[in-house]
Design a protein that fits this description.
By secondary structure, the chain is of the alpha/beta class. Helices cover 36% and strands 20% of the residues. Helix 2 packs parallel to helix 3. The chain is globular and about 40 Å long. It binds zinc ion (ZN). The site of zinc ion has 6 residues, from helix 3.
């Protein structure tokens, strides 16, 4: 089964297609289900973050409503989810978030961020989300330099 780093490499490739270099991948049972990247500028939508695009793509593809529809899914993202994306993970039932660069890392290279760690959001939710940080963080951050 591929490692966290191998899935993060897929997210890194997706990030290169983004308006800003953020990429994300959804994995279930070891299989990649969807990939997405930031489309904020091309969509004229400041909320079109990689993770939001990814979650919408997958929930739409599943074609039914269930507030825990993504239970059992692992979301890999090149950067720590912002509060909006962390909340979207909670609202869709994602079981696990694995990120590369942290919000603090992004702020250190001049990226505008809302300075709230994703765990602060997910820990207040109604279901448990496992968080793993710093997977290929230097590679994820290097996309901004
Ligand atoms: Zn976000």
């Amino acid at each position: 089964m591929p490692t966290h780093a191998e899935y993060m490499k897929v997210a890194l490739e997706a990030a290169k297609q983004g308006d800003l270099p953020y990429g994300a991948v959804l994995v279930k049972d070891g299989e990649i289900q969807a990939t997405a990247y930031n489309t904020a500028q091309r969509d004229n939508d400041p909320t079109a973050h990689a993770e939001i695009n990814l979650l919408r793509q997958q929930t739409k593809a599943l074609g039914k409503y269930n507030p825990e529809i993504l239970k059992g899914y692992s979301l890999y993202t090149t950067c720590e989810p912002c509060p909006m994306c962390a909340a979207a993970c909670a609202w869709t039932g994602v079981s696990e978030i694995i990120f590369g660069a942290s919000i603090a890392d992004l702020m250190s290279v001049g990226q505008s961020q809302i300075s709230v760690p994703c765990e602060t959001i997910t820990s207040q939710g109604f279901q448990e989300i496992k968080i793993t940080s710093s997977v290929l963080a230097p590679e994820c951050l290097a996309l901004f330099q």
